Structures are given as structure tokens and as C-alpha cells.
Amino acid sequence: MHFIDTRKKSSERLTADEEKDLARKIRAAEERARQAIEGVDVAMEILTRRPERAERTRAGAVDRLEQAVEAVWRGSREFPELKQRGRAAKTAWAEAEALRWQLAMSGRRIAHGEARKLAGPFMDEEDLVQEGYIGLLRAAKRFDPDRDIRFSTYARWWVRAQMTRAIDHTGRPVRLPGCAVEQTRNLRKAIKRFEAAGISYGIAELAEEVGIDKERAELLLSQGSTISLEQPVDDGPRPRSLERFLSDTDAVRPDGEAIQAQELARMHDAFEMVLTERHRFVLTRRYGLQDGEFRTLSEVGKEMGLSRERVRQIEREALIRLREQSTIREGL
Fold this sequence. Notes:
By secondary structure, this protein is an all-alpha fold.
């Protein structure tokens, strides 16, 4: 994902006719790219393959077209007869991308407005604006100019959905798939609707309302639920509460400090072997490994004199290295 400079002024607002005209130009450029690669084996293999469920959309078709254009472009380096067609397809696709970007950025005010509403402890406004831009680009890829709807109206839903999904992922100890987050949100909306209408309901009714099975509804609603420490956890004449089973955190553990020091030393050695100094600094500041204080990408970027997106890339590189290196697990 390319970092988008939020300091630039927003693009001019477009009228309904201008939005549709721009969307039709995007379709025309995509069609020219398709025509340029028509009949090329490697392209037709991509374009005619049976799409997966997630690809049976306008966005999925656009993604497949992009893959086909790239395949022909790469093939033109090896086969000179494809050079002219590859160049024509690449030019048309670049035009479509530029127009799509222009359409998406005409709704930048939407991203800023929604970010101000949703900013909170899990994500600051600047991070949410970036998520909003992703939503705008998704909307631009899916927008149909022949439908009687404004792009600004259509894009608002995608912007808000992208932001709320990011907040849900950030605020949960365990990250849930996007579909699970959306289904959980729909279940909670159904609960509010039933309660507002004074209708009694159970898990089965909620599951039917959302369109999922009862077992999945139970699982999703259990995520993030809390229980009382005084709640009995066993049966019998003298039921005991959960609190009785919890260890006393204030009790003295002679081996505790030694074990912790040993584990920290091993982790430090693993960091030294796998990560560069820049990687270690980003992870340490982002996750508060020294002072326990979490920092946003923007805050770390200011300390390092880097853009927010560059910090995100460094963090991603570091996490990938940690996952791939078995030395950490062996050392721990």
C-alpha cells in the first residue's frame, strides 16, 4: 500500500455527472487494456479461469485483469512479438489506475469526516484517515456509473466499513477475520432491533436474522464476553468462585524473577541475531517493550524522521523475520 500524504489539499469535489463520466472513462481504459491482451494464452488463462467466491465481483474481475496485463507485460520481455500488445495494455491500465485514483480522492473529505467521528483509544485520527483512503480505493474499484447513486454516497459505506474493521482488529487481543467481525456487528445490530421492538429472542432467532447457523452465532457472541470473578465455576454443596482458582499475584515466587530474567535474555539474544537495529527500535517503541507504553506509527515515525508508511513497512519486515526464524522458538 502506498503512503498517502494527508497534508495535501483534498481534490475538488465532483458533481454526480462528473463522477459517472470519470467512472465510464475508467471502464473504457480497462476495456482497452483487455482488448490489447485478447487472445494471448497467458492472459486468457487468467481471465477465463473459474473465479473463487470472493472474486465473483466487479473488484475481482478488475484484479484478474490487472494480473493478466502484468503477465503479458512480463512475457513481452521474453517474446518480442508481445512487446507492442504488452505496452498498449500497460499504458491503458496505467490510465485506468490514474482515473481510479482521481475518483477515489474526490471523496477525501469523507475519510477525514469519518475519522474524526471514530477516532479513539485504539486508533488515532491519522491512522483512521489512511484506512479511509483504502476504503475509497475499494469503492472506486467497485463503483458502477450506470446505477442511480452518487460515488460519494457509495464510498461512505466502504470508508466506514474499512475504519470499523481496523478498529475491531486493533482492539481485540485475538484478531478475527473480516467476515467474522462483520457478522458479529450484524448480530449486535439484530439484538438492538429486537430489544427496540420489544420482541423476545434467542440465539436461534438472531442467527436466522443474520443468515448464519446457530453454532456460529454462539461462537461470535462469546468473543469478548466477560464473567464475574464471584461467579461459581463448579457444582456441589459448596460451590467455589473463579477467584479461588486464581493465583495470588502478590505472593512471593523465589524462582519467578530468575525465570523472567532468563527468558528476557534469550529473547534479547534472538532479537540481536534476527533483527537489525532499526527493526528492534520500531518494535520496541511500537509495543512498549521497554517502558510499557504503546505508540502509533505516526509517533514512531516522528522519532525516526520517517513517514508513517515507512514505519509500517519496517514493522512488517521485522515481524516476518521473527516468524520465519526458527532460532527464536529453539532459543525459547
